[in-house]
Amino acid sequence: MSAVQQAPAGERDAPTGGHPERSRLPVLVCVDVEPDGRLLDRSRVQPWVGFEQVADLLEAARSGFAERTGQSATYTWFVRMDPQVAETQGSPTWPATAYAGRFARLRRAGDELGLHTHAYRSTADGGWIVDEVDQAWVEHTVRSAHAAFRESFQSTCRCFRFGDRWINDATLDVVEDLGIGYDVTLEPGRHPVVGPIRLAPTRGPSADFSSVPGLPYRRDPSDFRRPDPDGRSGLLLVPLSTHRYAPLVAAALTACRRIRHPTLRPEPVETLNLALRPALFRHVLARVLARPDVAHVALLVRSEPLAQRLGWIEHNLRILLEYPGLDRMVVTTVPEGMARLGLAGGRRSAPLDGPRVSRPAPPRNRPWSP
Length: 370
Ligand SMILES: [Zn+2]
Known about the structure:
Distance between the termini: 45 Å
Bound molecules: zinc ion
Radius of gyration: 20 Å
Mean pLDDT: 86
Number of strands: 14
CATH class: Alpha Beta
CATH architecture: Alpha-Beta Barrel
Shape: globular
Number of domains: 1
Order of helices and strands: EHEHHHEEEHEHEEEEEHEHEHEH
CATH topology: TIM Barrel
């Protein structure tokens, strides 16, 4: 099933007619713009150094991508503006204010700004817990972040990513209700995990992405993991690029990773992430591109200030810049990349079947306690 086959006839762009510019493979660089660390200190406002450093690297790489592809290169930035940001930085709009000049420059370059949320919640003892079990809390994180985005950037939010490899149907209903057109949360092939891989105390496992398609699709309203053949949803799900390792490679990687993290049960599935070790990045990129049905490449990078990771990101950007087939690709934003596939996200003119968006109880800001 191709991406274009999944687009209902009424929404397709004009026929591409095999135009060479249209047939370029869209490469979507998706950046999570978030604080340094996870269990944040509330006692002082900390700059997001990781974001500054990752943004410097990507901005420096822009002209190289443009030169190689002959097309302007643009990125999609997913900005955290959820309750944890509000609590630690004094306001959910802090990143937009603190980095106003940077975001203005990125937008002038044609980049897309979207939202990234996590469900971090204060605990009664002053700590943090990831609470994706209380749906009213999850919906509050999404709606409050969306309000902060609209207030800060004075523009429509078109792209969204939930954090910690988690999403559910009710939350996607909220995202769609807010008029957001593109969700880039899914990591096909990933099974739910609990424990150390989630990196923070959490009330539940991550989501089950083991059966989600690798190509962009509109979800079945009763289960986001399945495409809806009628394409009724306005929200386009754009999966990140993932790769399942061959059994021998997976076994070797598992053995290596368990030396450092004995309790870890790594999955044989890797998400194409700019912060991977360069040898792995090169391998996963090649496998993703070798897939016969590849329609897009969506790669992720989380802003974090670890020197080793920054070195890997810089190295991996060079791997991408020097990739032999890059001249047949275009580094572009999520909406523009999907438009090249004849797909558009956003509100549908036809009403959806029945009331699907649950209206949550008033936001619950009180700390979570067991
Ligand atoms: Zn995140």
